[in-house]
Specification:
This protein is of the alpha/beta class. 41% of the residues lie in helices and 34% in strands. The chain has four helices and four strands. Strands 1-2-3-4 form a four-stranded mixed beta sheet, with helices on both faces. The longest helix has 16 residues, at 55-70.
């Protein structure tokens, strides 16, 4: 299960995500979640409460980040736990998305 809370302050958006970023979250991430992120100029994707990411979730994350960046929205990914960070490292996401995106 995937859920999120959006915090907006001026042009800054913090998206707190909860649960699993996987195939079951595809519809939500590609729909209302992404739409709400497009309303800002700076977006922080907070992974503090994300427990699991599968290959579909990785694809969703990459697609989301690339979509935001194509709209000149600055994106950072924060509070990634060790297990998920290990997957990101194996897949070389820091090299693909840029090291400066991970804080």
């Amino acid at each position: 299960m995937f859920d999120y809370v959006i915090h907006k302050e001026n042009n800054n958006i913090i998206a707190e995500m909860f649960g699993d970023l996987d195939i079951d979250s595809t519809e939500e991430v590609e729909g209302p979640f992404l739409s709400s992120l497009l309303e800002g100029k700076n977006v922080k994707l907070d992974f503090q409460y994300v427990k699991f990411v599968d290959s579909t979730g990785i694809g969703l994350l990459m697609k989301t980040v690339q979509k935001l960046q194509s709209k000149d929205i600055e994106v950072v990914i924060a509070n990634v736990n060790e297990d998920i960070q290990a997957v990101f490292d194996i897949l070389q996401l820091t090299e693909i998305l840029g090291k400066d995106i991970f804080v």
